[in-house]
Amino acid sequence: MVSYLSTFISGFQEIIKEMSLKYLNPLKINEILDGAIIYDSTANINTIRQLKFFNNSFLILDNFKADLDFNKMFDKILLSEGIFSKVLSNLGKKDKDFRIMFSNENEFVSFDKSKLVNLERKIIKESKNKLRLNIYDPDFEFWFLKRREKSFFLLRFTNNLRNKLEKGELKKELTFILNYLSEPKKQDIFIDPFAGYGSIVLSRAENFPAKLIIINDLEKKYNGFWNKKLDSLKNLKLIRKNSNALNLISEKENSIDKIVTDPPWGEYKLITNKEEFYINMLKEFVRILKKEGIIILLMNRDDSFKDIIDKFNNLKLIKKIDILVSGKKASVYKLKKLAKSI
Fold it and tell me: Fewer CB within 10 Å, N- or C-terminus of the chain?
């Protein structure tokens, strides 16, 4: 087995453990930290690259005490033997360009360039010129990483920094987890009532088959985006509708299996009365949802939303997970429509 470290959205520890065991079996989990999991797996880096619930993944090359400074970590790696031959045997065929990074508690820090060049030369020499320095757009990175729990020398083989997002668009790792939480099934009729650029919808279509996926958003600014996107996704059963999410007139009662959505938080779009807005939203969701149907909501963190849920005697709160989204406090709610009101 090979030792890896993968990072994920803070707050999702339990669901990451569940998904890791499901998608990387056999797997030995050594430790789960805040936003990171350390594990041993027989999977190669290309397999782990395909996992969409991690932010980034690293091959662990060495580890150190948490309080060891970067200079001592660097000197140990510079004097090591055979570590970069191990790297070559794990890289993909297209992995050629590298750079070296230093991260202290998720903040990049600078390092003495006159010393750094010695390690860069060592990597190139030991790889017999198969690896090349590229500080601007590398295929992978060597990281000296300090965390409060422990420190590492790592090879980062994922590059999610290349994924540019539209304003308000959610990251793929988050949308994958949201859809996973909805317990997706092939026979589902699925809707995102606030689809926007469709990151949740597209994640469902790409990762979890469904009988029908309904894209709904009232704002016309997304029309051009979806016209192009739907042309390229003709093999999928997706339809787009322009309805008010508080009045989904095209959807019949008890017709939807799963609702996964990111409703307005009141930050970019003014909501004059948030409580009234969310009550009307849940009323409409309950109307169209089948019995035992599931709702997954990504909301800004506001404990008063639970009081709104409590107003519905046919909705059960299954779980609430507090997370961070782009540095902002948020919560994920999983609700189920009950067969009988309580």
Answer: C
